[in-house]
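Lab notes, practical 5.
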Amino acid sequence: MEFFKIRFGDNFDELSSRFEKTLEDMLGSMGPSFMLSERTWRPPMDMYETPEQIVIMAEVGGVSGQDIEVEISSKAVRIQGQRQAPACGPENTYRLAEIQYGRFERILFLPSPIDPDKVSAASKNGFLEIRLVKRPTDQAVKVPIADE
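Output from the prediction step:
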């Protein structure tokens, strides 16, 4: 038996999403334990390019280096991790809960090819800095010709 998704009307996803966000905002203001689902967040990031390298800066305050994983391919960088929520006892009463906790993941596509052997990453003052050295584009490659 096959199932088909049938949608009637317009903007149901948008309305549902807005309703869930409003409900989560309302419940979340009472405390993180009232959240409906596991929160994911998107840390703000910058990516800039110099003639020699690509630099990525991620604002990840409160996340230790051991809770961050960086994967690099020839076309993209994947940064993922988790910010742990502080343990709160039942005697705590939240009056405001704006700091985002939980899992995060970002995939950034690179503007030019990089040398995967020349990558460095460091964390300082709540920022993760990833430096990717560009691969020379004018480098000639010799192609061997096989005799048949």
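Observations recorded by the TA: The two ends are 55 Å apart (CA to CA). The chain has two domains: 11-38, 42-85+100-138.
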